[in-house]
Amino acid sequence: xxLSRIQAALDNVGLRNRxxxxxxxxxxxxxxxxxxxxxxxLAMNLNAIIPVVGHRIKxxxxxxxxxxxxxxxxxxxxxxxxxxxxxxKCVLI
Length: 93
Description:
By secondary structure, this protein is an all-alpha fold. 56% of the residues lie in helices and 0% in strands.
């Protein structure tokens, strides 16, 4: 589960600490967000994760502006990020 684009987009709009854990809880990764922002019928699925309309719009704009990365492996997850460490633990258990 790659969250690198989600993390970057949230960082770009200053909302990482507020919403990153929600993406993890809802098991939404970069690939899922790519589908959501590409299909207006799926866009409402972000409401549960980012309920504030202004924040949701800023996140979507920042996410779309990022280059699409190839599927990343677990080796690309930054180990100094508490959320990433929890994700790694879940994968390894």
